[in-house]
Amino acid sequence: MDIYAVIETGGKQYLVKDNDTLSVEKIEGEAGTKVELSVLAVSDGKELKVGTPVVEGSTVTTSIVEQTKGVKVINFKKKRRKGYSRKVGHRQKLTVLKVESISA
C-alpha cells in the first residue's frame, strides 16, 4: 500500500498521495511557491496515524502550479407572473497544487 495523507485546506478535506495534483480554494502565492499543509491523518502503508486534530510532526509539502478559476455557476430565480427574475454568476478562484512529499 502507498503512503497517503488526509489534509485540510479551504474548509475541505483531501486524500493525497505523492505526485498528485489537486485544485483547492485559492491560496496566496506565485507559481512555484512551496506550501506546507497540516495533516489530519497519515499512513505509511502499514500503520495509520490519526491526529486530534492534526498529526504532530507530519507535513505535506506542495508547490503551486498555477492560479486559475473554476467553472461558472449560474444562480437564477424567477417568480412567475410577478415580473421578478434575478440572475447571478460566480466563478471560484482556485489554486492547483502538486504534492512534492509526505513526511510521516
Fold topology:
Blueprint: E1 4-9, E2 12-17, E3 21-25, E4 34-43, E5 48-50, E6 59-69, E7 73-79, E8 84-90, E9 93-103
Antiparallel strand pairs: 1-2, 1-4, 3-9, 4-5, 4-6, 6-9, 7-8
Protein described:
There is one protein chain. The protein is mostly beta strands. The chain has one domain. The chain is 0% helix and 63% strand. The protein has no helices and 9 strands. Strands 1, 2, 3, 4, 5, 6 and 9 form a 7-stranded antiparallel beta sheet that branches. A hairpin with a 2-residue loop joins strand 1 and strand 2. It starts with a strand and ends with a strand. The relative contact order is 0.30.
Summarize the structure.
This protein has 104 residues and is mostly beta strands.
- Poorly predicted runs: none
Write down the secondary-structure element order.
EEEEEEEEE
Apparent shape: elongated
Assign the structural class, choosing from mainly alpha, mainly beta, alpha/beta, alpha+beta, or little secondary structure. Answer: mainly beta
Radius of gyration: 19 Å
Task: Looking at this protein, list some descriptive labels.
104 residues, mainly beta, 7-stranded antiparallel beta sheet, two-stranded antiparallel ribbon
